[in-house]
Amino acid sequence: MPRQTEDQNVLEFARKWEPYGGADASEILLCFGLDVDSFKARLHRTLTRQTVPDLDPDLRWRLLRYAATR
């Protein structure tokens, strides 16, 4: 089974937490060792530098909007 990249992990985490308005700071720190702003910056880079073929366009837009709120 192929190992997920860190970008894929960030995206999957954001997908999971999107319906709840995003994860809280402690969950992000525990999973990624990042503060919220750093996580959002990483998510934004992931969404803008590569295409994610199985990502619904509406979900992509919501995640980009979430990532922009710092």
Structure description:
It contains four helices and no strands. With 70 residues, it is mainly α. It has one domain (6-68).
Number of domains: 1
The backbone outline, from C-alpha atoms, is globular
Query: Helix and strand succession?
Result: HHHH
Poorly predicted segments: none
Give the terminus-to-terminus CA distance: 36 Å
Biggest β-sheet description: none
Concise overview:
Helices cover about 65% and strands about 0% of the residues. The chain has helices spanning about 5-15, 25-30, 35-50, 55-70.
Comma- or semicolon-separated keywords:
70 residues; globular
List strands and helices in order, with pairings.
Elements: H1 6-17, H2 25-32, H3 36-49, H4 57-68
Helix pairs in contact: 1-3, 3-4
